[in-house]
Every structure is written in C-alpha cells, then in structure tokens.
Design a protein that fits this description.
single chain, two-stranded antiparallel ribbon, 8-stranded mixed sheet, alpha/beta, about 20% strand, globular, Rossmann fold, 10 strands
C-alpha cells in the first residue's frame, strides 16, 4: 500500500481514484481501511475515495504512545496536504466519526461535508463492555485464520448477519505469524491509551460548532444484548438538533458493525442524496 508520513509516523493508505469530489474515510477503534469496501462499491464510480489505517492499526506504524483525537487530527491534516486536498468530504465510523467531528471544528475550511456513521458522541461506560470482544482479541494468537474467523462468526452481533464485507474485513484484521497462527494487527497498547483518552473527551461541546452539512447514521440494534447500541435514539436526536444543517438517518435492522459492513439500501439512498446537495 502507498504510505503517507505524518509527524514521523508512516500511514498505510488506499486510494480509489474516481473523477468526483474526494471522500476521506476514517475507520473505528480497532478497525482498518478494509471496512470501507461497502462504501467504495457505492460511491467510487463518482468520487475519489481515500481510506487509511490509523496509527497503531492495520499496516500503519505503531508508535508506543500518541493516541488521541488531536493526534489523529494532525495525521488527517497531513494526509489532506499530501494529496493536495484543500477541502474534502470526511466520512468516519465510530472512533473515526469522533476524529472527523473534532477535525471539522478545528479546521472548518478543510471540510466540505461530514458523514458520521454511528459515532461522534461521548462514549457511555456500558459501551466499553459492548466493545469487549473487539478489544479482547488484541494480542491473542489464534491457531489459524479459520479458527479466528470461526470465533468472530459466532459472536452475538454477527449471528445471522455474516456477509462478504465482514469476511474481507476480518481477514485483513490479522497478520500471519511464522508459526501459521494469526494475531490482530491493532496494537493493544494503542487501543488502551486511546480508550483512556476517549473517556476524558466531551464531544458534545463541538456539535453546535460544526459549520458544514452533516449526515448522521444511527444503528439501532445492540451488540451483545438487544439494547447496547452505541448511540441511543435520544442521543442521536440531541446530536442532530445541536449540529446545524444536519440530517439523522436511522438504519433499521443494523448494529454498530453492519450499518457499515453490509448492503443497506437506506444508507445508499441517503448518501447519494446528501452528496448531491451543494
């Protein structure tokens, strides 16, 4: 993959060079750029799309410290400068939505539109528990890729929902060790520091400061239980009211993962409408 250097850290980047306006995609807490393939299938024909692995994840460098929204914002600014993008659409999922939101307030002239996919709000304490399976796999060696994928397919949030996008995403989630075992590419220490810093953030103070048109997607289904959705209806409505020129779209029968890693007609139609508006 091509590389972009930001503050001495090399970031792995994937570009789909469509003819239209640029969309920069920012993934979630333990994720990687492959989570955006569903959006690439929807949008790349008419948009230049750029997705990258955050520091500490995927094939990007993994420094021992330096994991915060401000640091990610600095990396994002370096990426925009590298590609000569004076202004871009930012699309973020989960942590990526947090990064995009704060960046849009810090650098309003660099963001034309904002797309927040099930993120951009303060993290409730119980959500850390719901993200447990994603976090607990970090640093664990699985005897084979099949064993790893079998474990992921069996988790409650994927029961009856597994698809090709999830398969590709989780195959790219791990590195193969000399023994043949596999292990997540995300650095456990990076995620621990990230979570500690996230719990000190107060993202609601930025909502009313967003200047650009904003599209918010909410996934209503839970992860480990029926009710542990990342963003409650009340939270999403409050955020949409606080962000000027925002539109809230609730995507039925999706959870925090499948709202992005899936084929959702409501997501497709909302995106196409939003991106057409000048």
């Amino acid at each position: 993959m091509p590389r972009v250097t930001a503050d001495g850290v090399s970031l792995a980047v994937k570009e789909w060079p469509g003819a239209g306006p640029a969309i920069v995609c920012i993934h979630g807490l333990t994720a990687n750029h492959v989570c955006w393939l569903s959006m690439v299938d929807l949008l790349a024909a008419k948009h230049r799309m750029i997705a990258y692995d955050l520091r500490g994840r995927g094939d990007s460098d993994k420094p021992s410290t330096g994991y915060s929204l401000d640091q990610h914002g600095g990396d994002l600014l370096a990426l925009l400068d590298h590609f000569g993008l004076k202004k871009a659409v930012l699309m973020g999922h989960s942590l990526g939505a947090h990064i995009a939101l704060k960046f849009s307030v810090a650098h309003p002239t660099r963001v034309s539109k904002l797309i927040l996919v099930d993120g951009g709000i303060d993290v409730r304490a119980e959500i850390i528990d719901a993200l447990g399976p994603a976090i607990s796999r970090l640093g664990i060696e699985f005897p084979s890729i099949d064993a790893f994928l079998g474990m992921m397919r069996g988790l409650p949030m994927f029961t009856g929902r597994w698809n090709d996008y999830l398969e590709k995403y989780f195959r790219n989630d791990v590195e193969t060790l000399p023994s043949g075992a596999v292990r997540s590419k995300a650095a456990k220490g990076a995620i621990a520091e990230e979570l500690a810093n996230l719990q000190r953030e107060r993202l609601w103070v930025y909502h009313h400061q967003v200047k650009c048109p904003t599209l918010i997607f909410r996934a209503p289904d839970g992860l480990l239980t029926q009710t542990d959705c990342l963003m409650t209806q009340a939270e999403s409505v409050a955020m949409a009211r606080a962000i000027p020129r925002s539109t809230l779209v609730v995507v039925p029968k999706t959870n925090h993962y499948t709202v992005l890693l899936g084929r959702n007609p409501r997501v497709a139609s909302a995106l196409r409408t939003f991106l057409r508006v000048r």
